[in-house]
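Um, can you check?
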Amino acid sequence: MHGSVEHEPELGVPAREAWDLYGTLRLGKFLEKELPNLFRKVELVEGDGGLGTILIKTLLPGKLGITFTKEKVTKLDNENRIKENELIEGGYLQLGFTLFKIQFEVKEKGEDSSILKTTIQYELNEEEEAALAKAPLVFNAIKEAANVAQLAKIHLNKK
């Protein structure tokens, strides 16, 4: 079973400002500061924020038993403002997902506003019934991404 889910809020800031957060390592520090109830630490393991960069996000213990995710930047297009991270260890992979990618695309919406399109792609190689039981976890993940986007909107609009 495979699929994707999306979320597209308007951020109310120019695309270059949104990309300065979402397209860089600043996002990890932002997550630590703004979501301390979810993220204990975001650490850079390898790279400089560009293609091939590896991050470990240490989470506070939650309902799903996930304590960390190890992610790799697999796509970075600064011109079109697209960044994709793929889980390579931990997180949803611990729950039976064989692929879990999150993509951020910052689109211009006029001179002073932008839209953040977040897409989660996933695959589950389990029996159909078991896969269907785990599919709602993806909706929880996009809900968390939506929460981060709302916090980012508030943060970016404080300037």
Remarks:
- The beta strands are 2-7, 39-46, 54-59, 68-77, 82-90, 97-108, 114-124.
- The CA atoms of residues 6 and 86 lie 16 Å apart.
- The helical segments are 15-22, 26-34, 128-134, 136-156.
- The domain at 2-156 is CATH 3.30.530.20 (Alpha-D-Glucose-1,6-Bisphosphate; Chain A, domain 4).
